[in-house]
Amino acid sequence: MTFRKILVAGLSMMLWFQLLMPVLLRAEEIIDVIEISKQASGRISVVLDKTIAKGSKEAEWGQTIDANIKGGLDFTGLFNMMPAPLNIRNAQNGTINFEAIGSVGSDVYVTGTLTRKKGEPYLDMEVYDVTGKQMLKKWYAGQEKQLRPMALQFCADLIELLTGKRSVFGSKIVFVSNRSGAKEIYMCDFDGSNIEQVTSTRSISLTPAVSPDGRYIAWTDYTSGKPDLYIKNLSTKTTAAVRKAGVCIDPGWVPGTDELATTLSIDGDQEIYLIKSDGTVSRRLTRNRGIDVSPTFSPDGSRMAFVSTREGRPQIFIQDMNSGVARRLTFSGNYNTQPSWSPGGDKISYSSLQKNGEINIFTIAPDGSGISQLTSRSRDNEYPSWSPDGSMIVFSSTRQGRRKLFVMNADGTNQRPLLQMEGEQQQPSWSVIK
Amino acid sequence: MKNTLPGIVGLAMILLAGCSSKSAVSTGDSTGAGAGSGTGSGIESGSGTGSGRGVAGPVLGDIFYDFDSAALSADAQEQLKQNAAWLQKNNASSVTIEGHCDERGTDEYNIALGERRAVSAKEYLGSLGVKGTRLSTVSYGEERPFDQGHNEEAWAKNRRAHFVTK
Question: Of A155, A203, A386, B100, which sits with the fewest C-beta atoms within 10 Å of its C-beta?
């Protein structure tokens, strides 16, 4: 195992918290980053000890913290969680018995202490490896109602410590549901909790997409009687409309910009155009007979993957944004749509309507190599969207009858429902929202 | 005002069963109290007698498409000729052509496909002399299926262009 020490300044941590979390949490720390050898399952084994708390209020808060840490870590599919062995603490002096951690096959030990400072919860968290080396010591302070964000902030820190990557915590998923009888846009936390309704158009609202900086949400709805595009500024609550003759459908944002690409048919054919966040058309991107739809961009914004019927059946193409030159990406199957470019840039997920009538989710490298089928024999699985850290994919599935949202790890393992909600859910898009 | 009446459509379909044009499912507009009187050709009843005019609303037959296609079949062209004939007799009315898809395939793509279906019908009517200013199009993709079923029989009915008079 290799060790390296990182000193994280308190100020930069505070900035980072403000970016990620709706509450201000403070911390100061010295972190040891450690590479943990993953087990055969690909999971990291963690002993999660019960948070130590004196006093009934503190104990109640501690239970909420424990439940949210467990739920948060469990959601990622990265961990095997084990209860603390009975002999975890030495009976005489209360010190940690690290041999006990190794003996149950765990890689790391997590322990916390919850106290009350000025009437509010104050959480001290410590993480150790099996040799007894302290990997993280950090405190989290907030109000009573912020116990969940405090717990999830710790989960985010732990995952960054163990994997070197940002976590899904703090991200949101926007999606479509017909719960109210009409299709409207909704938003929930990364784990399906805190569902909020975004639109109340009572028409048909479709294909929500959040801008890379989290400031805008764009979608299509039929308020005017036909499918037009709307771009809402989430902080000012103002909405710009893109109402052109024909369709205005299926927006995809360009990373690092305030522009999105969407399909318009103002020129008689369904072509992809760049649109500014104020709703004005910036420029036309495609120029071909047939349908061009569903743009998604490489993380550096230099390439666009999209669906085109220029060679007959719908297939995915990649176009260079500077030269405008496009090449076909998918050759297997007659109906490949819904591309989504991974945040790491190395994969594009998409759905394929197969000969047996099922729709299934695949990934492919941007050079056309390494096709991998992620879903099978579970009816229709559609609309894959990557988590901001690239570790997971959210999608819709009819495997239980009605169309519902599911998540899976990026390799297709650990497929499970995201949320329980009335009606049908579809077209999920995973985002970081400010 | 747009107000499709499924019951009328169903009745029209029963009446049309066995007629030569298998694709000619007629649909009634809101005013179509007498719309059950579809003829074998799928045009509205009463156009020859005149007496039915006040009772039967305009009835323009749907046209149907193959999967993932906006191409007009011979049946579809025949139905469009009948629709064009009605539109030329009733030249005060204008029509919204709705493009629809079956539930297979993906929703976003199908909105684009539905538009191509509506536009293909509009262009054909235009080629038969119906003024483009009387015709508008809207695509509903697979959002407004005529038949809620999940089989080829239902899908075949849902891959359509539907005509709503104003």
Answer: A203
